[in-house]
Amino acid sequence: MNPKRKAIWDKSNGHCWYCGEVLKNGWHVDHFLPVNRVAGDVMNPERDEFDNLVPSCPSCNIMKSNMGIETFRWLIGNFVTRLNRDVTIYRHAKRYGLIKETGKEVEFWFEKETNDESK
Question: Where along the chain do its domains lie?
């Protein structure tokens, strides 16, 4: 692993910045504050720096795309609503007690780690 990539991996000791899964080969580097591109040109180059780069699993990085963190939180927080509205087998599984909805707020890995360290 090249030194820059290793330094980004070290920010989370090899966990996805968002979901906390252990990173596997093929993990992504995400811009925490999104960098927008138009025709390949970076529209906000001040965000394309090391301090704004975080390790991410491919799933979270692709889903987050160019969203800010609060928009990403909102998207994930609405998954259960969308499942109830759109997915019949989800509703059946819930009806048979195979799924329990928790109503839990979305808290990202980096937030949990920051909160744990301050205790």
Answer: 3-117
How many CB atoms lie under 10 A from the CB of residue 38?
A: 7
End-to-end CA gap in the chain: 33
Task: State the DSSP code for 22.
Answer: B
Q: Single out the residue of 109, 103, 62 nearest to residue 80, CA to CA.
A: 103
Q: How many whole angstroms separate alpha carbon 31 and alpha carbon 23?
A: 17
- Is the pTM higher than 0.85? The answer reads yes
Token couple for 91 = 């509703």
Q: What are phi and psi of 81, to 5 degrees?
A: -60, -45
In tens digits, the chain (119 residues) has pLDDT values of 899 999 999 999 999 999 999 999 999 999 999 999 999 899 999 999 999 999 999 999 999 999 999 999 999 999 999 999 999 999 999 999 999 999 999 999 999 997 765 44
